[in-house]
């Protein structure tokens, strides 16, 4: 009997989608990647993946991309430039849901976020909640991966720390340890979950092998734990809330996206957005340490 399954992976131009697709191929599974631009699929075709060209807002094209597949990993990319950020996210979520139903897709693994259980005061994470609500009835087996803070989110701040020997942080208090996870671990867990069998809805909380604080990031950059940067002091410094909007001025975000970032960050700092102990939620820990991710960010 041929045990190879066909899995569709969206978001392969991003970190978790790329990691999931590669992990599935390493597991000797058949992979079909979904790209908006055919040129983005060339490297995947060279690796042996099928390539489907579809915009996630194009329900018909996405239905064709999902056809005859055994499951799909869904990453819904936010459109932070848009003045209608949440409306576009909801429309995309509905398109994905309709395509999954039309294609009779049996299994979905969906990237979500810590805090998606909350109905208010979560900023950007409201888009993950919309995605969960839209997709929960779109397949007989659905798994939502509620990921912790991405370790790679430190990338622009690590660059500043390298140049100025100060690590600006939106997260406070500076010594408070938070769950974080590497995007490569998210992709690996997504691939592993896709290859499992279950019925109904699963919720998986994802975090790394330990919890970390902004001070931990600064200490590592100082060379306390590696030779990533010649050993010099690096101080973590809180960005005052009053300066957040100005700090994001060159981000390319719309005013709605900036407001969403601020609300989300306030929720993280207050503890409103956090993992909670619930028996129905599964816990998954990644294996990649923060130091490994920070070292790669420093080199890149």
In short:
By secondary structure, the chain is α/β, with parallel strands linked by helices.
What does this structure look like?
This protein is an alpha/beta fold. The protein has a domain of 190 residues: Rossmann fold (3-Layer(aba) Sandwich), CATH 3.40.50.720. Helices cover 38% and strands 20% of the residues. It contains eleven helices and 13 strands. The strands form three sheets. Strands 3-2-1-4-5-6-10-13 form an eight-stranded parallel β-sheet, with helices on both faces. Helix 3 crosses helix 4. The radius of gyration is 19 Å and the shape is globular.
**Side-by-side strand order of the widest sheet:** 3-2-1-4-5-6-10-13
| Main pleated sheet | 8 strands, parallel
CATH superfamily grouping of the domain at 6-151 and 180-208 and 274-288: NAD(P)-binding Rossmann-like Domain
- The rounded Rg comes to 19 Å
Summed up, the helix count is: 11
Percent range for β-strand residues: 15-25%
CATH class of the domain at 6-151 and 180-208 and 274-288: Alpha Beta
CATH topology of the domain at 6-151 and 180-208 and 274-288: Rossmann fold
List low-confidence stretches: none
Relative helix content: 25-40%
CATH architecture of the domain at 6-151 and 180-208 and 274-288: 3-Layer(aba) Sandwich
Give the N-terminus to C-terminus distance in angstroms. 44 Å
The rough form would be described as globular
Strand runs, count: 13
In sequence order, what are the helices and strands, one letter per element?
EHEHEHEHEHEEHEEHEEHEHHEH
Average pLDDT, rounded to a whole number, is 95
Structural class, from helix and strand content?
alpha/beta
């Amino acid at each position: 009997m041929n045990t190879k399954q066909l899995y569709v992976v969206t978001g392969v131009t991003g970190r978790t989608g790329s990691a999931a697709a590669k992990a599935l191929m390493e597991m000797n599974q058949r992979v079909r990647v979904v790209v908006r631009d055919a040129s983005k699929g060339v490297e995947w075709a060279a690796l042996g993946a099928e390539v489907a060209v579809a915009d996630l807002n194009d329900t018909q094209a996405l239905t064709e991309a999902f056809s005859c597949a055994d499951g799909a990993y869904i990453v819904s990319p936010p459109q932070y430039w848009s003045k209608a950020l949440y409306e576009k996210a909801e429309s995309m979520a509905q398109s994905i849901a309709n395509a999954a139903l039309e294609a009779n897709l049996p299994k979905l693994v969906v990237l979500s976020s810590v805090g998606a259980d909350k109905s208010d005061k979560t900023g950007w994470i409201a888009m993950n909640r919309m995605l969960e609500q839209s997709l929960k009835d779109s397949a007989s087996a659905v798994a939502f991966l509620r990921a912790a803070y991405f370790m790679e989110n430190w990338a622009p701040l690590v660059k500043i720390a390298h140049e100025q020997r100060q690590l600006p942080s939106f997260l406070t208090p500076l010594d408070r340890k938070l769950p974080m996870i590497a995007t490569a671990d998210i992709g690996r867990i997504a691939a592993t979950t896709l290859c499992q069998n279950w019925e109904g809805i699963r919720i998986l909380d994802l975090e790394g092998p330990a919890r970390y604080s902004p001070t931990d990031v600064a200490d590592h950059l100082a060379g306390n734990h590696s030779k990533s940067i010649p050993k010099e002091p690096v101080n973590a410094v809180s960005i005052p809330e009053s300066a957040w909007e100005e700090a994001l001025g060159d981000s390319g975000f719309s005013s709605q996206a900036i407001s969403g970032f601020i609300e989300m960050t306030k929720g993280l700092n207050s503890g409103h957005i956090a993992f909670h102990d619930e028996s129905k939620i599964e816990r998954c820990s990644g294996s990649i340490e923060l130091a490994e991710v920070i070292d790669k960010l420093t080199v890149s």
